[in-house]
């Protein structure tokens, strides 16, 4: 049995379990909501993991669906954990939609990501992130955003760190962000990260021409419990989106597998990053 630590993953599990149990009980959402004395919309928000179901609601739903004993108590305990606050909820600059992703990221055992325009957030230095936020946002809370981004990066070096495979478009190396010295420091940081055993970094060279991810960057998250199922995260200019349907995930997984094949090897990547650094002195 895998321990679910992130309240986001607990909320996701509760939503999935309650939906499946309701369907097994042969109840429509409307019928179940009426019996639970709530609106179908509210039950829908629980099942779509938009809101966290309070333990008392979970207990009532399980009784309605005929679930008792150890199975019921385990789910109720999970619901208690789902109401806990993750560290990201202490940052007012992290909106709910992104907080959901960060909670998934915190629980992931492996991450696969493709970036076309910028260094991946988990690999950014403070100066690089600060300049990126200055260019792409219009608020006055940039330092909080930088702090939150650096907090996210702790999953790289924690005990049992997340495994990350990153493919980065060559354009990222040729588009300096910040001053020359700041960008050189960012590239040096990439080299240092690429030496960690849990991180694989590859550059997708211009020479490959067209490739399967020309439409958008994306991130794949995998979890230690296979029953959780992988997800895809798409980062939009205003708001991101999490895809959970298996057919959607498979499309992006196939694209990433092809990108890894097209990209430079890890040694070629380090050599290319070093070459770009040398030109910045």
Which features would summarize this protein structure in a list?
6-stranded mixed β-sheet, elongated, Endonuclease, Chain A, single chain, 50% helix, alpha/beta, 6 strands, 2 domains, 281 residues, 434 Repressor (Amino-terminal Domain)
Description:
The protein is an alpha/beta fold and 281 residues long. The chain has two domains: 7-82, 434 Repressor (Amino-terminal Domain), CATH 1.10.260; 87-278, Endonuclease, Chain A (2-Layer Sandwich), CATH 3.30.870. 50% of the residues lie in helices and 11% in strands. It contains twelve helices and six strands. It has helices at residues 7-24, 29-35, 40-47, 55-64, 69-82, 96-107, 126-136, 142-152, 171-174, 180-194, 246-262, 266-278, and strands spanning 110-115, 163-169, 199-204, 218-222, 231-234, 241-243. Strands 3-2-1-4-5-6 form a six-stranded mixed β-sheet, with helices on both faces. Strand 5 and strand 6 (241-243) form a beta hairpin. The model has no long low-confidence stretch (mean pLDDT 93).
* Computed Rg: 21 Å
Could you say what the CATH topology of the largest domain is called? Endonuclease, Chain A
Q: What composes the largest sheet?
A: 6 strands, mixed
Highest-level CATH class of the largest domain = Alpha Beta
Number of helices: 12
Q: What is the correct CATH architecture of the largest domain? A: 2-Layer Sandwich
Give the structural class.
alpha/beta
Quaternary structure state of the chains depicted: single chain
Mean pLDDT comes to: 93
Q: Please bin the fraction of helical residues.
A: 40-55%
- Spatial shape: elongated
- Order of strands, main sheet, comes to 3-2-1-4-5-6
Termini Cα gap: 52 Å
Strand portion: 5-15%
Say how many strands there are: 6
Domain count: the total is 2
Give the SSE order as H and E letters.
Answer: HHHHHHEHHEHHEEEEHH
Low-confidence stretches: none
